[in-house]
Amino acid sequence: MKRYAIVVERAESNFAGYVPDLPGCVATGATVAETEQLLREAIELHLEGMRADGIPIPEPSSQVEYVEVAG
């Protein structure tokens, strides 16, 4: 089991997400929850395709943290 970081951002009329450790692995959805679910599916398909093409699967390496600033 691998654990990949995802980034979900608000777009103009929906949400868009991507996986920093898997370039090209993206998804969009109407809600954050839908986008997260679609990203899970996209990651599985992305890794399947990499395996089929004989491409090494990258280990998760991105780290996610939040930083508080006065605003």
Summarize the structure.
The chain is α+β, with helices and mostly antiparallel strands. The protein is 30% helix and 17% strand.
Characterise the protein shown here.
- By secondary structure, the protein is of the alpha+beta class.
- The chain has a single domain, classed as Double Stranded RNA Binding Domain.
- The protein is 30% helix and 17% strand.
- It has one helix spanning 32-52, and strands at residues 7-10, 15-18, 26-29.
- Strands 1-2-3 form a 3-stranded antiparallel beta sheet, covered by helices on one side.
CA-based shape: globular
Query: Could you say what the CATH topology is called?
Result: Double Stranded RNA Binding Domain
- The secondary structure category is alpha+beta
Helical content stands at 25-40%
Number of strands: 3
Mean pLDDT: 97
* Number of alpha- plus pi-helical segments: 1
How many whole angstroms does the radius of gyration measure? Answer: 14 Å
Order of helices and strands: EEEH
Number of structural domains: 1
Q: How is the biggest beta sheet arranged?
A: 3 strands, antiparallel
Q: Order of strands in the sheet with the most strands?
A: 1-2-3
Q: Uncertain runs with pLDDT below 50, 5 residues or more?
A: none
CATH architecture: 2-Layer Sandwich
Strand content: 15-25%
Per CATH, the class reads Alpha Beta
What is the rounded distance between the termini?
39 Å
